[in-house]
Amino acid sequence: MKKLLKNGTIVTGDKVVQADLLIEDEKIVGIGNYDEADEIYDVKGMYVMPGGIDPHTHMELQQSPLYRSADDFYTGTVAAAVGGTTTILDHIAFGPEGANLHYSIDIYRQLAKKSVVDYGFHGVIQYVDDDILKELDEIVRNEGITSFKAYSTYGYAMTDIDFYRILKQMKSSGGLLTIHCENDLITKHLIEKAMEAGHTDVKYFPATRPNEAEAESVDTLLNLSKLVDVPVYIVHTSAGESVERIKLSKEMGQEVYSETCTQYLMLTDDVYSKDGAKEGVKYLMQPPLRKKKDQDVLWKALKDGDVATVGTDHCPFIYATEKSKGIENFTNSPGGAPGVEERIKILFSEGVQKDKIDLNTFVNVVSTNSAKIFGMYPEKGSLEIGTDADIMVIDPSKNEKISVDTQHSVCDYNTYEGLEVNCGIHLVFSRGTLVAQDGEFKGTREYGKFIHRKNRNF
């Protein structure tokens, strides 16, 4: 079947052209001037772009025996699709102590089968020994999971030697290490001191995970990356100081990639005092929200190319039964928030419509760069002839208000409640199939396919 997007403005990471786009079955087959197709969509005045890629989600995350993230791979990818995202890369959760790398990967392969859009995984490293490194090599080379995540904080925090050994293996295998950077000893100490002082209200939470704790860890990983001569990918960069270290490394010729998330571009740490802890605890996440000055640095870094991608770290928990447990003591709340549906609308409205970033940069940070960094380009993140017809059509004339009442996530609150956006996601195609239209899901359960990724081609 042929589908025609007629009269639109086609935008990629490096081009803006007036043209029609022709789809046949799952592929893009033409860009030019066409009149005939089985289905014709008039998209005059709208932008035709590669479907969004969210490089950072947590569907069905078992954060602890008590807490599991609210969205499964069905509801979470429905929200993604309606929001213009046609591919997610999900961060796999920790397994039990001593679990090998395949333990959680095998579980997630089954969980993700209900996805409505295409998906891939970042593996997770809990500990390092010779067997783990051998297994890592096998997975990166043969199983289509070419990126793994490790942490410098939490219960499975890596030591510097652990990171060094992983990076050496990644260099040999051709994989990419993604890292959650926060200094574990400092954050633990600051949390202990806060509890001793009776500072259990969530308004004290940001001070326990300060900018410097993130930036110090970023600096350490950049130095180790330089020592081994292999790239790294810093997830959810939130602090201006971290961006400055990343920028300096890039200026010195180092290959490093950085991600930020919608919440760090839009929200500040004053929300932790919003209507007391009852509201503030909704925004508890690691790293915490920062200040306006950090937002300014992040927006400039997106414009300048020092931050390559914008993800969501979509990891919602139900407020009524889970997040609210942190009202009296913030350490009792699971960390994480929703956002996979809102990312593209917010980035377009706040970024493009307010001249913080241009159209090409927008496409790069919400789609193309992730495809290149994580080995999916040009099949994903492009509009090249012969590639998957993963497409979103944005209507810049629309005005919408974000609300929990209209979202598709099963979470019982919305991080951006009441925010007005100056755009709408008109059409979303996943491999040529219409999966969303004007806020309504049109796809089917189990349509999504696992993406067997290659090594990066940035």
From TrEMBL:
Protein name: D-hydantoinase
Coiled-coil parts of chain: none
Lineage: Bacteria, Bacillati, Bacillota, Tissierellia, Tissierellales
Cofactor: Zn(2+)
A single cellular component GO annotation: cytosol
Pfam families: Amidohydro_1 (PF01979)
PTM entry text: Carbamylation allows a single lysine to coordinate two divalent metal cations.
Nucleus keyword on record: no
Domain called Amidohydrolase-related: residue spans: 47-435
